[in-house]
């Protein structure tokens, strides 16, 4: 069963972003880039010009997590710029189906994120439009927060839906994912793992990724959902 580790550069040194990305090249499957607008979330990071530079200079594919208002207007531009995966928040989109279609039409994988307080039940019919569902395991906005284990039933439910419909949709978790929490995520049904502080706030990010991958693989192979995925 394929799984993916996507280190979040939110915890990297922003003064040396390209070097920080290349430190994990060959080890990370994706690079998770958190775009925040100080409107949808109370924090500000980076936007399209920096994402474009990273796409041009970094060898690992870019997994853009857009924590920005008016996803309808802004999300397709990240796909047009060449991000291989673009995830918008359903809470920030007036027409999530159209946003997903626009992202795909621009050549990227379409991801849809939901905040901890948002139920997935209202959006189940959108699954065929999506390549990934991101279930937030913290309130979006900051790295280094505590993992919300009470989001695991949501992960399980999305996994059930994806398996039942035989869809090839990745299920991503983001927030507080670490060596202590990644197994419970994999067991619930996640197959794509964002980790910021657990990778970049360590002396050896490559070793941290390899440890996370081994833990996730072990938990996946003994999980309830693995043989049905
Ligand atoms: C939070 C971001 C995360 C963040 C995760 O809103 O979406 O991607 O970088 O950081 P950790 O892994 O430290 O919780
Ligand atoms: Zn993120």
Explain what you see.
Helix 2 links the parallel strand 2 and strand 3. Strands 1-8-7-6-5-4-3-2 form an eight-stranded parallel beta sheet. It is of the alpha/beta class and 229 residues long. The structure holds D-xylitol-5-phosphate and zinc ion. D-xylitol-5-phosphate binds next to strand 2, strand 8 and helix 7.
Rounded to the nearest angstrom, the distance between the terminal CA atoms is 8 Å
| Bound ligands, each once | D-xylitol-5-phosphate, zinc ion
The number of domains: 1
Examine the secondary-structure arrangement and name the CATH architecture: Alpha-Beta Barrel
What is the mean pLDDT?
97
Going by CATH, the homologous superfamily would be Aldolase class I
Rg (CA only): 16 Å
- With strands numbered from the N-terminus, the spatial order across the biggest sheet is 1-8-7-6-5-4-3-2
* Oligomerization: single chain
Write the layout of secondary structure elements.
Layout: E1 4-7, H1 17-23, E2 31-36, H2 48-57, E3 62-67, H3 71-80, E4 85-89, H4 96-105, E5 109-114, E6 132-136, H5 152-164, E7 170-174, H6 182-188, E8 192-195, H7 197-200, H8 205-221
Parallel strand pairs: 1-8, 2-3, 3-4, 4-5, 5-6, 6-7, 7-8
Helix pairs in contact: 3-4, 6-8
Summarize the structure.
The chain has 229 residues and is α/β, with parallel strands linked by helices. Helices cover 34% and strands 18% of the residues.
Features:
TIM Barrel; alpha/beta; eight-stranded parallel beta sheet; 229 residues; binds zinc ion; globular
